Structure prediction request, 197 residues.
Amino acid sequence: MRYLIILFFLINATAMAQKKQIQELPFKSIPESSKNYESGNIVVRMIEGLGYRYYWATEGLQTGDLDYKPSDSGQSTKETLKHIHGLADVLKNVSLNLPSISPAPNQSEDFVELRKQTLNYLEEATVNFKNKTPKELAELKVIFERGEKQSSFPFWNMINGPLADAIYHTGQVVSFRRSSGNPLPKGVNVFMGKTKE
Prediction:
């Protein structure tokens, strides 16, 4: 009997640890800043700011929020999230100097999976950009591949293109959710990168 009780507690503890691990997504808060201002670390901080904004812009979204459109001709919140997912994929691919395939493969229709994948792409990009020198950044390209066609752009285009665009559209999600009656959770502080819960 004693062994059964011990086995029960071990199984329960393992299941709880796995559940906690599954639920924890990156960017609930902005990680501690780097000690140096290497070019790569500045890019990392910009992506961390995006990740934090995206995490909280998408936290607690309901079906009504995802379906919300500001007008008949506009994109819904979910369509906007799919676009941000594609932009996060580009950021990840640039960090690896890989082409971004269009249309984007592996884009889930499930909101929970889409959100998780977007945040994980952003986290992967931060890991890859960390401590990169100006020379290393200059060697990276923004590469788009559609069928047999490939086009390549300098790293600068990633900053004013996909990165800035993802921040812009994350702001739209915040506006859309406010309009659909589900504003950002209280305590989100983008300046500090922390949320009072």
